[in-house]
Amino acid sequence: DHKAKGSELAPWPTRLTAPSPRLADFGYSNEMFEKDTETWRRRVESYWNLLNPKIQSDTLRNLMDMKANLGSFAAALKDKDVWVMNVIPEDGPNTLKLIYDRGLIGSTHNWCEAYSSYPRTYDLLHAWTVFSDIKKKGCSGEDLLLEMDRLLRPSGFIIIHDKQAVIDFVKKYLTALHWEAVATTADARSDSEQDGDETVFIIQKKLWLTSESLRDTE
């Protein structure tokens, strides 16, 4: 069905950052695509600067972008030794086509439900405005926290990029989930006025230890 357009795809790895021939089908221009790619390049660079004190070269392998949009988060990681599952909302535009055109992999999901994660868990979850989205649907933020804890490996990381009110909500559950705050910073992207008070909050999942194992570590 898309032979003519598909044949215009650039070879790998150029296609990661080259505008897809199908951009116009989703109302995007090449300029909008390039701006999105650059925005997420800067954001990912900022994320890694915050994570650097906690990670080594092989700490992060399986990653999930819980709201991938155009796949620019994953594209910005092309020089990292990682694998990214890109997830897009089931009630939004089917930008999986654009993600596939970039040579990436992805799936569609509603975060009001559990995610079919077999056979893997993840070292890092990236949640850009996911909590704000499910709140609009009337779904439970507490349930999403539990689902993220299930998906995340021990010692794994979560990057929550959302409104300050969401960050405050998540902080209330850190102790109960055995999560630890790593860093908090405002999103310093140049067009932040479009995003309001978005904040980046990085969390690490700690090991659950019994009283006996705690004594052993001491």
Automatic annotation (TrEMBL):
The keyword Methyltransferase applies. Its EC number is 2.1.1.-. GO terms for cellular component: endosome; membrane; trans-Golgi network. GO terms for molecular function: methyltransferase activity. Its main location: membrane. Keywords: Glycoprotein, Methyltransferase, Signal-anchor, Transferase, Transmembrane. It comes from the Eukaryota. One of its GO terms (biological process) is methylation. It is found in: Endomembrane system; Membrane. InterPro entries: Put_SAM_MeTrfase, SAM-dependent_MTases_sf. It is a single-pass membrane protein; Single-pass type II membrane protein. Belongs to the methyltransferase superfamily. This is Methyltransferase. It comes from Dimocarpus longan.
